[in-house]
Amino acid sequence: MRTHSLALEGSAFPGVSQSERPSYPDSYPRSILALDLGTSTGWALRTPEGRIVSGTESFKPGRFEGGGMRFLRFRRWLAELKTTAEPIGAAYFEEVRRHAGVDAAHAYGGFLATLTAWCEHHQIPYAGVPVGTIKRHATGKGNADKATMIAAAQARGFTPADDNEADALALLAWAMAQGPA
Fold it and tell me: CA torsion angle for 43, 44, 48, 51 (degrees, to 10)?
């Protein structure tokens, strides 16, 4: 995993069950999670303190893994992220309507199902944002290519490892522009 800006370590409430954790008033700042779902998932997170953390996480299937293991690893990764970034006020994902191939479409569907079920389980609001909306917000052009998206992230002071991380950063910027989570 490649992380920028802030190391996410520890939990705000180690050893405390979910039901024992304090509830937060609506005015309490919450984390916002933005995801570019895929085998190489780009992610960006605005912490309650206002810091931005981003990176990529690979869910490439291992040589001896079954087809569902990547989704179990994704769910475990989400759980680890949740413990370090609580409270998460909202999760946004890049809503892809067209894929280059069948395998990519199947993987995206699995990641999307895992994410939405996880969000429902943890009562975290989530929303898909069309690709063109994200690209238009970041670059002014709804069909910007990968290099342009990376350049837009760099212009905002980030150093994305790849287009997946750049897309997640752009999605986070769009979500933050919509108002408080």
Answer: 140
CA dihedral of 115, 43, 88, 125, whole degrees rounded to 10: -40
DSSP state of 90: E
This model's pTM is above 0.70: yes
Residue 88 half-sphere exposure toward CB, CA atoms < 13 A: 25
User: Sheet holding 40-46: strands in order across?
Assistant: 2-4, 52-58, 40-46, 31-36, 88-95, 126-130
Instruction: Please report how many Cα atoms fall inside a 13 Å half-sphere around the Cα of residue 108, on the Cβ side.
Output: 16
**27 to each of 12, 23, 48, 180, 181, how far by Cα in Å?**
18, 12, 11, 9, 10
Rounded Cα gap, residues 150 and 145, in angstroms: 9
Catalogue all structural domains in the chain, each as residue range(s) with its CATH number.
28-177 (3.30.420.10)
- Which pLDDT value is given to residue 46? 94
Reported as a single tens digit per residue, the pLDDT across 84-134 is 888 899 999 999 987 677 888 889 999 999 999 999 999 999 999 999 999
Rounded CA-CA distance 163/115 in Å is 20
- Here the tokens at position 25 are 């008033």
pLDDT of residue 22: 38
Which of the residues in the chain have pLDDT under 70?
1-29, 99, 180-181
